[in-house]
Amino acid sequence: MRIPLEDNFTDIIGKAQRGLEISDSQLAHNSGASEEAIRALHDGKFDRATLDRIAPALHLDADALASFAQNEWLPNDSAVEGLAQFNTPFHDMAVNAYLVWDPASKEAAVFDSGADCSALLEKSKAEGLTIELILLTHAHPDHVADLARLVEATGAPVYLSELESAPNARPLVEGESFEVGGLTIEATLTSGHSPGGMTFFIRGLDQPVAIVGDSLFAGSMGGGNVSYADAVRNNCEKILILPNDTILCPGHGPLTTVAEEKQHNPFFAGSFKS
Ligand SMILES: [Fe+2]
């Protein structure tokens, strides 16, 4: 079953407002829209004129936001041999973990545990894989909820940014890379949502792949809990500069690609318009 988008247009507006620390009254003042109209948008009532006013004040792309609000865009299905996504329920939400392997050597790496790593372990067994490495995008509870069982089942070492902590995790710094069979995995710091959020760029499959955690979602991004400015800048400078056909694997919601996000993500589309 297809995973729904993580955020709707009201989530996007809310994340931008919180990130930029702009209240409804300030947004009304800055944009010329009425507070009442802004509140109606927050309630999910789409209104293009108000959206056109507030989008520039929130550094969002109005066209991308409008098409998002009208459900006109969903990312195309992405798939490449050697990549599997696992979506597991965690309280009232769902979280993704990923299994990536070299189809030739059957050596594999796991990215986050998700809430329940059972399906991931079953897939690994069915494919005859050896899990050599566990890499964590960040240490928020939903992403590491089943880590102890994953470690016990695989015996694989765990790596996490030195700026965060999880039981038995070894420290990881930006620029470190790993070889898994014929695959190369490079760690890049994409902090902002969390202090040590990492993106893992993987070469060696038929298409490049990036495991981005909660740095970026299809059509949205994780909340900039630590620094919204860092989160936006890292996404622009470290993720969206990857090759256009890179499959992006977010911590929540469906797979997407660099090309689709540059065109459709309201946070970034304005920066990449020619
Ligand atoms: Fe998170």
Shape: elongated
The CATH homology group name of the largest domain: Ribonuclease Z/Hydroxyacylglutathione hydrolase-like
State the helicity in percent bands. 25-40%
List the strand order in the largest sheet. 1-2-3-4-5-6
- Distinct bound molecules: fe (ii) ion
Distance between the termini: 35 Å
Taking all Cα atoms into account, the compactness measure Rg is 19 Å
Low-confidence stretches: none
Predict the CATH topology of the largest domain: Metallo-beta-lactamase, Chain A
The CATH first-level class of the largest domain comes to Alpha Beta
Could you tell me the strand content as a percent range? 15-25%
Number of domains: 2
What labels describe this entry?
binds fe (ii) ion; Metallo-beta-lactamase, Chain A; 2 domains; 274 residues; 434 Repressor (Amino-terminal Domain)
